[in-house]
Amino acid sequence: MAEQIGRLFSQIQVEALSGQDVREKQATLRRAQEELRLLHARQIADAAAQPAKIGLTFRQKWDALDAAGRNEFLRSAKVRVVVSRSELPPVDHQDQPPAPHGIPSMVIVDKPELHAVIYLGSLADLLSPLTKARQET
C-alpha cells in the first residue's frame, strides 16, 4: 500500500506541474494515507493455530456446490464486495482487536475504472458453513 501511495503522489506531482486538475487524485491520496494510518495503528495479535475438525476442506466443499450453492456458501460466510468505477470505496475497519478465528481478510483492487474492496469474512465465518455441513451429515 505504501508503494501505491508513493506512485500516486508522484502522479499528482507530475500532473500538477503540467496544469492538470489533480483534486480527485489528491482526495484518493488522502483516503489511502488515512487507511495506511489506521492499519499502522492496529494492535498486533499473536498468531495462534488451532486445528478445526470440520471433515471437509474448503476445496472439497466448493467443488461439491453448484453456482447457487457457492453463492449461498459465500453469503453465509459473510463474503461481500463493494465496487465503484470512480473511486476506491471506504474500507470498513474493526475498532477492537479480533477475537480468535476472527481475523478479517480483505482484498483491495484499485485500478483505473475498477475500484473494489472484497471482504472475505473471518476464518470463523468461513469455517461456519463447513462445520454446519459436517453436523448435518
Question: Could you characterize what this model shows?
Answer:
The protein has 137 residues and is of the alpha+beta class. Helices cover 48% and strands 16% of the residues. It folds into 2 domains: 1-41; 48-137, no CATH class. It is built from 5 helices and 3 strands, in the order ααααβββα. It has a 3-stranded antiparallel sheet. The longest helix has 19 residues, at 23-41. The termini are far apart.
Distance between the termini: 44 Å
- Principal-axes geometry comes out as elongated
> Could you name the ranges where pLDDT drops below 50 across 5 or more consecutive residues?
none
How many beta strands in the DSSP annotation?
3
**Order of secondary-structure elements:** HHHHEEEH
- Structural class call reads alpha+beta
Helical content band: 40-55%
Strand order of the largest sheet: 1-3-2
Main sheet overview: 3 strands, antiparallel
Radius of gyration: 19 Å
Count of domain modules:
2
Describe this protein with a few key phrases:
137 residues; alpha+beta; 2 domains; three-stranded antiparallel beta sheet; 5 helices
